[in-house]
Structure formats: C-alpha cells, structure tokens
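Morning!

This is the sequence you dropped in the shared folder:
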Amino acid sequence: MKIPEPGSSPAMQRLLAALTAKNGMSASDLAREAFVGLTTLACGGYLKALRDARLVHVSGWRKTPKGFVTPLYSLGNKPDMRRPGFTDVDRDSAGMGRIVAALEARGAMTYREVAEASGLSANTIKNARYMDILIAQKRVHIIGWRRNRAGPMTALYLAGTGQAAPRPAAFSGAEKCRRARSKAQALSVGRSVASQMARL
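The structure's back. Tokens below.
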C-alpha cells in the first residue's frame, strides 16, 4: 500500500482537520473523527507519515488498567512526550473497587475476610498486592492487628484514609512457651472437671 503525502489525500486532510478541531486524540479517536479505518491509520502508516512530516506529535498518554499504553496525538512540530512510568498509585481494577466497597459496607476486616466479602480469591488479593496498592492510594488503611493462634499477625483494613496502626511486637520465645504452658494447663483443668462431672 502506497502511503500518500501528508495533505495530498482526502484522508490525510480529514486527519489534520480533526486534530485542528481537537488535540490529544488516540488512533481510535482519530479514526472515528476523520472517517479513516483504524488499520489504515495505524498499520497503513498514515500516522507515521504525519509524524515523519512533523505535522503531529505524541502529546500525552491515556491510562488504562494495564498502564499508559495509548499515545495521544496533537498537531505541531514538537518532541514526543515520553511514556510515563506506571506506579502503584496509577493502578486500578474492578476487583480493587469491590474491596473498597466491601470494607465500606462491613467495616474492618482481614484480607481473607475481604476476599470472602468481595467474592475475590484471597490468593489474588495477596499476589496482586491489592491491599498494599490501596494503602498507597489512600483508599484503605490499617486500623489494627489481630494476633493469630498460629502464624504471623494479621492486619485489619478499613476503607478511607487514616493513621496506620503500628504492628505489635512479636512474642519472644519465652512468651510463646509461657502461653503454651498456660493453654495446656487450662485444657487439663477442663478435662479433670469434665471427668469429675461424668462421675456424678
């Protein structure tokens, strides 16, 4: 396919007219506004020809859930804007919205409770780092910590901004032994009382 010179074809003229009317359009926006097929525009080399002739430049980037992947074009002989870095603050998804909605509706929860309330997998929430990202975006915060019977402390999350509750110190080895002895003693007392009641 031979690419026409910029300004020499009706399609090129419509593209330039569309950008004159409105700057900052993606390839799909331009295809719709100028009545040019998207494959003709992008794959056919029309946009490249306009950029090579220094009639258009990349003036911005549109954010999608996958990052800044869509360039936006404007008229003028200017340097192309570099693609911005995609950070945690920029991330968003339907799942993240469901997490915030669940916390708003039910109050403070662990990430496993959030998974159950939002219908998401606990592994998805953990592996995609949704809770860390939502904290970075100030959409949720840690309101407290729950000590598990076995394993590490578990954060309790609440929707909205707030001061993060500090993580409590872990039990020392001596404290763990003392708690285990105390629990074993309570269980043995409970068994002896139950056996005495059974004899009555």
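Headline: The mean pLDDT is 83.

More detail when I'm at my desk.
O.
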